[in-house]
Each structure stands twice: as C-alpha cells, then as structure tokens.
C-alpha cells in the first residue's frame, strides 16, 4: 500500500474555510462565506487567465531545525539535493537537462559545486533513465533520477513497476533498489494542457513496493525529499509544479527529515475531515472529503474512501465525498472548469453537512 | 555557379500562385533554372539524391510564400503568447521552415505525415489554414481541433498531428505505413522526429519492424542540434542520425536549403514506393527561436544563433531567385504584404472567436452512441459525453 501521501489542500485560505465550516451551523456559515468573498460568484472568463485558482498560505517558520532562509518550492528542492550531495559521497543526480539547472531550476548550481560526474544529463529516454537509476541504486549508490514532467513517466512505467518495486521481494531481500528516488513535476499549472498537467500517483500507489510522496509546500518538500532519499525503498517524489514559484516559506538551511507514512493535522475541527489520512479523524467528525486533480475513477481517493468506510462505517454521518477531476484527459482550454477547486469542495461540504 | 537551362519555358504562371506582378513584363523573368545543391551523405546506398535541383519561377514563389507564411505566423504567435492570449506549451518552427515546405513539395497530398510537438510548420503545409492554426492556439471553437488541443495538437486529413510525447509518433508513423502497404495504396508515410527523440527506445523497435516488413516509411530526423537544452554531442553517442537505423539506408541532407530537402525527400519517396522498404532522412537544420516561445536559451550562445541566422532558408531562396532574375524585389514585397494581411486577419479572428462551450468538456472521450455519462468533481456531478466532430 502506498504510504506517506499528503495531499495538498487547495483553497484560498484553508484556515478560514475550515474554521468557519467547523464552528457553526451550516446555513449561517454558508451565507457568511458568500458575503466574505464577493468573487465567489462563478463567472465564465473567456480571456486571459493570470492567477492560480488559490492563494498559497505559508507555514509558520519552523524553529526546531536550525536557521532558516526564504525559499520557494524549487529552491527548497535544490537545498535538499545540495544537502544530500554534500553528506553522501555516492549520491548522483541525473535526468534530462538537469546540468544547466533543469527546466524548473531545481538543480541550479549543483553541477558547478559537485562536478559533472555527479550531476549529469541523460539523453531523452525515460525508460533508460529509470532502468539506469535502478542499476545505480542496486550497486549501492544513491540515485536521484529526474523525469522532466510526470506526464512523461509512462515509458518508464515498466521499469518502475516491474523492476524497481519488485526487486527486494523477488530476490528474497538479497538485492533492492532502495537507494533510488525518482522526482517529477506534477499536477496542473494553469496552462499545461494534456501533457504537462497530469497527476499519475494512483498508477504507482497501486503497486506494492513503491512509496509515492507529494509535498504541500517548501518546508514539507525539503523534509520529505530528504526522507525519500534516505528511505530504503524506491520512492517517487511528485513536486506540484504550480507551487514551484508560488509557494514561498522560511525553510531550514540544514538537512532535516519529515517522517513518511504519517498524516499531519493542519487544522483541528469537529464537523468535517478534509483529506485526513487514517481513521481517527473520521471517527471524530463523521464526514470525510477527499480531493485530487486526477480523474475520479480509480484515483487515490477511491482507495482512502474504501478503507475508511471499512474501518469507520458506523461513525459516518454522510457518504464519503470525493471532489476530483473529471474522467477525461486533462483539458487545454477547459482547465479552470476541470480542476477541483475550493468552490466545488465547498459545495460538497455543504451537501455532506446537510445530508 | 549555376547553369541556365532554359528561358521562357512555361507560358503562364499557374493560377494557384496569387502573385501581383509588378510593372515588369512576364518575359523579363527567368522561368527555370537548375541550382546546385549540397551533396547528400549516404548510408547503405550506392546512389543518392541528385546534386542539382530544377526550380521554376512558380515553384520558387510558392515555396517562398509557404516558408514566409510560417515565419510570419510564428512571429504573430510570439506576440500573442507574450500577451497571454496563447497559453500552453508553444514550440516554434522559426528557422526550420525549409524542412516542412521541402518535404511537402516532394510528397503527394495523399501521402501521410506525422510529427512531434513542433507542429506549426507541418500543420500549415498539410493544409490547415493560418486562421485555424492561430485559433487553435488561442483555444477557440474555430480552431482546427475545436480549441481542445491547443498549440501542440493540430490535425488534418493525412496529417496525424501534433504529438507531445517524444518519439511516440514514430511508432504511429510506421503503423500508418503498414496500413498503406496492407491496403496497396501506393501511399507512403513520413514520420518526423527530432535529434532528442532519436535516443528513444521505441524508435529502434520500430526500425526493426519497418525493415523486417519493408514498410513504405520515410523516417525524417529534424536534427536542430538541441534536444530542448542538451546539445546532440552531449546526448548521443553517434550524432550521424542518418546512420542510426543501421540496417536501414539513410541520407543526410541540408535542412536549411528547401531545394535540397525537396530532392532528398523525392529520392526517399521513390525508394519507398519501389518496395525497397524504409529509409531514414536526416535534415540538418537549426531553430532560431528557443525550444518554446520566450525561452531564454541559456544553453547556447547568442553568437551561435546569429551565425546560424546567416543560413536563413527564406533569405537563401530569395537571394537565389533575385540573383538569377527569377523574381524581383517587388514580387517578394507583394507576397510579404499579402501574408502579413492574412496573418493579421487570422489573429483578429483568433482572439475574437468564442471559446468552446462548457458542454464540450467531456465530449469525445470514447466512441459512444448513445451518449454516456462522465463522472467528475463529486458523485452528484455527472456530465454528458457525446462523440461528435
């Protein structure tokens, strides 16, 4: 079973909407929310779309990991990779165009600092990149492979699912490629269209032997990525590309890890659980809403939903709600209507509260 | 340097070339000339394309018009992209016009062609109008793919797009060739890919099948020296892409000379049509623009780009025709003006056409009759999906 999945809650102000929903009765809260945000009247925009469909809310400054520095998501990834290359002499980073810094600037400066034998370009061959990465990992080096966009990961699907995931199992623990971490930009970005917007986590979550990790911000990204790299299992680390520049936080400069396979409570409440992992929160609230961009059928929300209803069936006050992408390829011009934004989540919450 | 073959051969320019003639009488212009072209390098072949190409005035003006239309269209797209009226991944063809136009001059309308995401040039040469191309880029309902594809996905009869996943289109192209062979249609398939895709595994799978079954497929490698940000020397152990097919014969041609591309493609087409099987055609070309619109191209120097721009295929053809008196400066100016007008008018349409209606969001996912319901957002939201053009 896939572990350590933290779904980023897309919302204008998660604290505002959560506390409002959890605090009072549904009717007045709904009206208050509508009055607070005049722009919530849905309006079909046919011209330029500049803004993302949410505003990123940074985490408070972490104090337990040492001095911090202002970083956005791609800088926090660079920082994690920098820490890794400094502390682990076997670590290598490779992928398409990583040498000059990568198309999303995640590897800027690393080649100059650590040398061209540790940070190098591969030709355009995803299957080759991952197969090669598995070999590097099996032989004992720390391999950090970059797939340029998650949409391009499919030529490597066989290597990941049939080779990387099953190596330990089929060799009776004699061999493993736990030193392998695959990184890929993931998710919608506003104009990515069919092949620069996909969220393929469900395909890999279905495969025992892999860990799939998706951070929600820079502080989380650095800690989780360092955990993936040190984890003794092959990990796929999907980086929400829409956050590369949009998410800015104070991130610790030194290395630190955030444990995988553990949920994180962002906001306490009593009426609805949004995207919580595990059953405890649903026992308390009785209602669960899960949201992701990937198409709803067979998406990871289905797995969570099924597991939760098995464990807390009698605690449920309403059917578990999934607010996800449509069962279509990720569209070009229809993107604003496709993505499961805060308004659709709000609508689903209202239905659950009123059930 | 060139030989005058004949003067005053053809009677009248063909009606399809709409050129406003200047005051000079028709008979003043050279009607046909044979130009020397660069000798092609060969792999697995004894004879290759000829080292000269015959060009008539009509053909020359047509080739010029096509290349210049692509060029001006790219410039307009850049403007629209900067204004955020075009979104998505937009990959320009500036500098590579001779490849698309030269190939089209050599193949028939009913031959099949498929290419990668750098699709603007081929869309135009394969018959999509400037208006439909620009409108597809802005994502409106008048676009060639009804606004659903965007800048990378354009299609036309006998033109299979517009494919984002690098290398995937080559397997498709070979499949199309198999269909041609199976249906004894005497058509060929042209599968275009780049120097980056040349290292994708599925290409080699497909080379093997095409050679084994003697498929009528021309594999065209547009080698513009960079796979996005990585130069060919740093990506490929062997940069002789025309030799990478090993047991498949190959030709390397100058992709910056439209006549060289045309002759090489003609040769390749005849090779396939005669039942000899597939052939690889490497076109050495260069993109003057970044990998995508407004890219900063930090992986190559501005000096290199400027040096390559000396080799501009459009300037070359114009210069050849002017020097040999095949056309006048006014001819070219008139063509430029007409193209500018066409592009401006198309752009105006592209930004004013409405976007596809929301009803279209779930259409054409499956073939379905009657219509089916598509799940999405949450369990209470279901939309209709209809398979329609």
Automatic annotation (TrEMBL), chain A:
<dbReference type="GO" id="GO:0009083">
    <property type="term" value="P:branched-chain amino acid catabolic process"/>
</dbReference>
<keyword id="KW-0560">Oxidoreductase</keyword>
<dbReference type="InterPro" id="IPR029061">
    <property type="entry name" value="THDP-binding"/>
</dbReference>
<dbReference type="GO" id="GO:0007584">
    <property type="term" value="P:response to nutrient"/>
</dbReference>
<feature type="domain" description="Transketolase-like pyrimidine-binding">
    <location>
        <begin position="71"/>
        <end position="246"/>
    </location>
</feature>
<dbReference type="GO" id="GO:0003863">
    <property type="term" value="F:branched-chain 2-oxo acid dehydrogenase activity"/>
</dbReference>
<dbReference type="Pfam" id="PF02780">
    <property type="entry name" value="Transketolase_C"/>
</dbReference>
<dbReference type="InterPro" id="IPR033248">
    <property type="entry name" value="Transketolase_C"/>
</dbReference>
<dbReference type="InterPro" id="IPR009014">
    <property type="entry name" value="Transketo_C/PFOR_II"/>
</dbReference>
<dbReference type="InterPro" id="IPR005475">
    <property type="entry name" value="Transketolase-like_Pyr-bd"/>
</dbReference>
<protein>
    <recommendedName>
        <fullName>3-methyl-2-oxobutanoate dehydrogenase (2-methylpropanoyl-transferring)</fullName>
        <ecNumber>1.2.4.4</ecNumber>
    </recommendedName>
</protein>
<dbReference type="Pfam" id="PF02779">
    <property type="entry name" value="Transket_pyr"/>
</dbReference>
TrEMBL record, chain B:
<protein>
    <recommendedName>
        <fullName>Pyruvate dehydrogenase E1 component subunit alpha</fullName>
        <ecNumber>1.2.4.1</ecNumber>
    </recommendedName>
</protein>
<comment type="subunit">
    <text>Heterotetramer of two PDHA2 and two PDHB subunits. The heterotetramer interacts with DLAT, and is part of the multimeric pyruvate dehydrogenase complex that contains multiple copies of pyruvate dehydrogenase (E1), dihydrolipoamide acetyltransferase (DLAT, E2) and lipoamide dehydrogenase (DLD, E3). These subunits are bound to an inner core composed of about 48 DLAT and 12 PDHX molecules.</text>
</comment>
<dbReference type="GO" id="GO:0004739">
    <property type="term" value="F:pyruvate dehydrogenase (acetyl-transferring) activity"/>
</dbReference>
<comment type="function">
    <text>The pyruvate dehydrogenase complex catalyzes the overall conversion of pyruvate to acetyl-CoA and CO(2), and thereby links the glycolytic pathway to the tricarboxylic cycle.</text>
</comment>
<keyword id="KW-0809">Transit peptide</keyword>
<keyword id="KW-0670">Pyruvate</keyword>
<keyword id="KW-0786">Thiamine pyrophosphate</keyword>
<dbReference type="GO" id="GO:0006006">
    <property type="term" value="P:glucose metabolic process"/>
</dbReference>
<keyword id="KW-0119">Carbohydrate metabolism</keyword>
<keyword id="KW-0560">Oxidoreductase</keyword>
<dbReference type="InterPro" id="IPR029061">
    <property type="entry name" value="THDP-binding"/>
</dbReference>
<dbReference type="GO" id="GO:0006086">
    <property type="term" value="P:pyruvate decarboxylation to acetyl-CoA"/>
</dbReference>
<dbReference type="InterPro" id="IPR001017">
    <property type="entry name" value="DH_E1"/>
</dbReference>
<dbReference type="InterPro" id="IPR050642">
    <property type="entry name" value="PDH_E1_Alpha_Subunit"/>
</dbReference>
<dbReference type="Pfam" id="PF00676">
    <property type="entry name" value="E1_dh"/>
</dbReference>
<feature type="domain" description="Dehydrogenase E1 component">
    <location>
        <begin position="65"/>
        <end position="357"/>
    </location>
</feature>
<keyword id="KW-0313">Glucose metabolism</keyword>
<dbReference type="InterPro" id="IPR017597">
    <property type="entry name" value="Pyrv_DH_E1_asu_subgrp-y"/>
</dbReference>
